[in-house]
Amino acid sequence: MDMNELLAQYPAIAEKVSKMGKIKQGPFNKKRYAKSIEEWNRFFPEDLQKMNQEFASAEIIERKSVYTKTAICYVSEGCFHTIPVRDILWVYAYVVKESMNFIPTGKQHQVRVWDRYGDMHIVTMTQTGPFTKKSPAEEAISKMRELIAPVRPGIIFGYSQDIQNFINTDIGAVAAKVDQDSQVN
After folding, report:
1. Can you say how many angstroms the Cα of residue 54 is from the centroid of all Cα atoms in its chain?
2. pTM (two decimals)
3. How many other C-beta atoms are found inside a 10 Å radius of the C-beta of residue 158?
4. Do 108 and 95 contact (CB within 8 A), yes or no?
5. What is the 3-state secondary structure (H, E, C) of 155-176?
6. Contact (CB, 8 A) for 136 and 109
7. How far is Cα 50 from Cα 38, in angstroms, rounded to an integer?
8. How do beta strands 120-128 and 103-115 pair?
9. 3-state secondary structure of 148
10. Which DSSP state fits 29?
C-alpha cells in the first residue's frame, strides 16, 4: 500500500505531513520508502488514532519533524518516517563542522534517535554559520524531552562514548534497560 493512502485515513496527520514535504516513492528512495511503510505498520490502530489526535495540535519542528507523546515523525527524501516512542532508546545532538581549505564554512546540527531495532534516524538537520553559538539541535531535543520523557522516562538523552559503546555492543541489553527504567509503578 502507498504511504499517501495510509496517511489519508488520518486527516490531521496527512495535513501536517503535507506542510512538511511531498511523500513520493521514486527510483532513488525505494528502500527508504519501504522502510517507512514498515515503520508505520509497527503501530497499533489505536496508537494511530491517538497520534492523529495529537497531530492536530502538534508543532512542526525545523520544517521537517513532529513530536508527539505517541511517536517522533519526520520527512526525509520523500519518505514519512515514524518512530513509536515505545521503541526509542537514545536521543542526542550531533554537530558536523564544515570547512574548505581548513577555513570553517558552517555547521550542520542533527538530532539523532536510535530505536530498539538498531536503526539510527536523523530527525532534524539545521545549518548554521561557522562561528554561531546557537544550538538548534539542543533546542529540538529539549522540546522532544518535554513531550516524551513523562511517557517513557528511561530514554537516554545526550552523548558519551560509553553510551555509544553500550549501544554498539548489545542493543538488546540497552532496550531491556530502557524498558525497565521506563516502568511506571
Report:
1. 16
2. 0.89
3. 11
4. yes
5. CEECCCHHHHHHHHHCHHHHHH
6. yes
7. 19
8. antiparallel
9. helix
10. S
Cell digits of residue 123: 530527525
Q: Is pLDDT above 90 for 135? A: no
Plot region of 92 (φ>0 → left; ψ -120 to 50 → alpha; else → beta): beta
The cell for 44 is 497499533
Residues, the chain: 185
Task: Report the distance separating Cα 10 and Cα 5, nearest Å.
Answer: 10
> What pLDDT is stored for residue 185 in this prediction?
43
First-to-last alpha carbon distance for the chain, in angstroms, is 40
- Of 27, 132, 126, 117, which Cα lies nearest the Cα of 74? 126
DSSP strands (E only) in the chain: 60-61, 65-67, 71-76, 79-84, 88-100, 103-115, 120-128, 156-157
Q: Which amino acid does the sequence have at 179?
A: D
Backbone φ and ψ of 85, nearest 5°: -60, -35
CB 107 within 8 A of CB 129: yes
